[in-house]
Automatic annotation (TrEMBL):
Residues 11-360 form the FAD-binding domain. This is FAD-dependent oxidoreductase. Its cofactor is FAD. Keywords: FAD, Flavoprotein. Gene3D superfamilies: 3.40.30.120, FAD/NAD(P)-binding domain. Pfam families: FAD_binding_3, Rng_hyd_C. It comes from the Bacteria. GO terms for molecular function: FAD binding; oxidoreductase activity, acting on paired donors, with incorporation or reduction of molecular oxygen, NAD(P)H as one donor, and incorporation of one atom of oxygen. InterPro entries: FAD-bd (IPR002938), FAD/NAD-bd_sf (IPR036188), RIFMO-like (IPR050641). It comes from Pseudoduganella flava.
Length: 503
């Protein structure tokens, strides 16, 4: 059976209309590709994507990415997490800005001036509701002409001489490329035979909205000799039971009895669970796809990597993947990609994913309820509490230390670009909204202007009278500085650098 209400072939089929699949669809459509998104769920309104379950921390890189596509303003009053760039004057209470293994760090202790990139013009982190983020992305995808088909599960694919045939529960569809954004249990990854190796869990995490009675649970984060529980608001409880992931892996539903038993064990008091409104389990299993690309099939987001949600980085990692892949795949489809461009998706993003997996594993070690680990946690807590420690940890959690090897050793190269301002007051963030790159020039260099004119379908030319710290910079469509110089422009060096990214 084939679908009759949509065009019979697309440049790209995306499995999964989660936040990452939708963001990638927007990126590809912005760059002129035809995109079909196939989503298993019949409707987008999962209660686990709504408050309180659906609250997600967006880090600096994600906030910047949304701003650079004009999407940030569409999120309804995202809640600002403590931000070192926006301290109100006068004495303020210490504001927790995040945590490492449950050890808090505070905005007042972060010295943003030490980060090796200029501060972004957007907040370093925000809290957003998944459901709302997806709604904003789905709306944008609609305006860009993306087709989204729900109640349709991708089951596999075949390669043909013309491209791919993607098989689903409601028929088969032709596409040139298939991207698996279908989450941790990705059917695309399995059908492509891509290895997904890593480490097995140490604990089952459970997040539950419950009615409680009996001995009261303490508010906030409570580490005990048997695990950890966290009550952020009355009845909204998160716990970690170091059972090797057995509860989660058993597939057993979260019953009132089981939850009460585990809570009593961890808290050591006679708490009563009267009613479970909603609950879900998860683990610290950490795995990564061996390759993010196999021929015409690519993996993005949780389909490419899973890890515990400690420190909240999975969504940010996935949005970063999508931002990195979108313009490269689109250029490949248009025939406008330098050789090897698409393969830089794996070489750039796989190491970043591996670092996040290790960051989550390191936290699990410190959270083990054993004497040696408790002793180590005390030491790490004193280090995190220092100015150096808080600055380092915040930089890691918010993705500020992320640097890609782009073959240029200027300090800005490989990092997210500062928000350059043009001579007529336009910003880099605004220039990036149409998905093209930007060539920033402080001095009206003729070679740069001529190159930009010849590549105007791919790159904006921005005269910027006082770009912070540089004479000229080439910014990729994903906002990463591909090349920069402080000196007079060496045209040959610039052309060589630009040819890595644009044709
Ligand atoms: C308790 C918890 C708290 C978290 N907190 C944070 C946080 O604060 N910050 C953060 O960055 N991350 C956080 N995360 C992680 C984050 O939620 C995920 O990394 C993110 O949702 C991944 O997005 P995705 O689009 O890749 O996958 P998903 O959100 O899993 O979306 C995949 C989509 O694919 C669909 N699908 C699956 N299989 C198929 C198929 N075969 N065919 C078609 N469609 C299919 C699914 O229905 C789904 O809509 C948290 C996770 C948990 C569990």
């Amino acid at each position: 059976m084939t679908h009759t209400h949509i065009p019979s072939t697309h440049d790209v089929a995306i499995a999964g209309a989660g936040p990452v699949g939708l963001f990638l669809a927007c990126e590809l459509a912005l760059a002129g590709c035809t995109v079909l998104v196939l989503e298993r769920a019949a409707t987008p309104d999962s209660p686990f994507k709504q408050l309180p379950f659906g609250m997600r921390g967006l880090s600096s890189t994600s906030v910047e990415a949304l701003d650079r596509r004009g999407l940030l303003d569409e999120l309804e009053v995202p809640q600002r997490v403590a931000d070192p760039h926006s301290r109100p004057p006068g004495p303020v209470a210490r504001r927790q800005a995040g945590h490492f293994a449950g050890i808090p760090f505070h905005a007042e202790d972060i010295d943003a001036a030490r980060w090796q990139r200029p501060p972004a013009s957007t907040p370093t982190s925000l809290l957003a509701e998944m459901a709302e983020l997806e709604a904003v992305l789905e709306r944008r995808a609609g305006t860009l002409g993306v087709h989204i088909v729900r109640d349709t599960t991708v089951t596999g694919f075949d390669e043909t001489a013309q491209g791919l045939v993607v098989h689903t529960t409601t028929g088969s569809i032709a596409a040139q490329w298939l991207v698996g954004c279908d989450g941790a249990r990705s059917a695309v990854r399995r059908a492509a035979g891509i290895d997904f190796a890593g480490t097995e869990p140490e604990f089952t995490g459970c997040t539950a909205l419950v009615d409680l009675a009996g001995a009261p649970l303490e508010p906030g984060r409570n580490v005990t000799e048997r695990g950890m529980y966290f009550q952020s608001q009355p009845g909204y409880v998160m716990l970690q039971d170091f059972d090797g992931g057995a509860w989660h892996d058993s597939g057993e539903p979260v019953t009132r009895e089981r939850l009460q038993q585990v809570l009593r064990k961890i808290a050591g008091i006679d708490v009563m669970v009267k009613h479970v409104h909603r609950a879900t389990t998860w683990t610290d299993r950490a795995r990564q796809a061996a390759t993010y690309r196999k021929g015409r099939v690519l993996l993005v987001g949780d389909a490419a990597h899973i890890h515990s949600p400690l420190g909240g980085q999975g969504l940010n990692l996935g949005l970063g993947d999508a931002l990195n892949l979108g313009w490269k795949l689109a250029a490949t489809i248009r025939g406008a990609a330098p050789p090897g461009l698409l393969d830089t998706y794996h070489t750039e993003r796989h190491p970043i994913g591996a670092r996040v997996l290790d960051w989550s594993r390191a936290q699990v070690v410190l959270m083990r309820p054993a004497p040696a680990e408790r002793a180590l946690r005390e030491i790490v807590a004193s280090l995190v509490g220092t100015r150096d420690g808080s600055t380092y940890v915040a930089g890691r959690v918010w993705g500020i230390h992320t640097r890609i090897d782009v073959g240029c050793d200027h300090p800005l190269a490989g990092r997210s670009a500062p928000n350059f301002v043009s001579q007529n007051g336009a910003t880099l963030a605004t220039a990036l909204r149409d998905g093209r790159g930007v060539l920033v020039d402080a001095g009206g260099d003729e070679a740069l202007a001529a190159w930009a004119h010849a590549h105007r379908d791919q790159v904006h030319y921005m005269m910027s009278p006082n770009p912070p710290g540089v004479r000229a910079a080439l910014v990729r469509p994903d906002g990463i500085v591909a090349w920069a110089t402080d000196d007079a422009v060496d045209a040959a060096a610039f052309h060589a650098a630009a040819a890595r990214w644009f044709v």
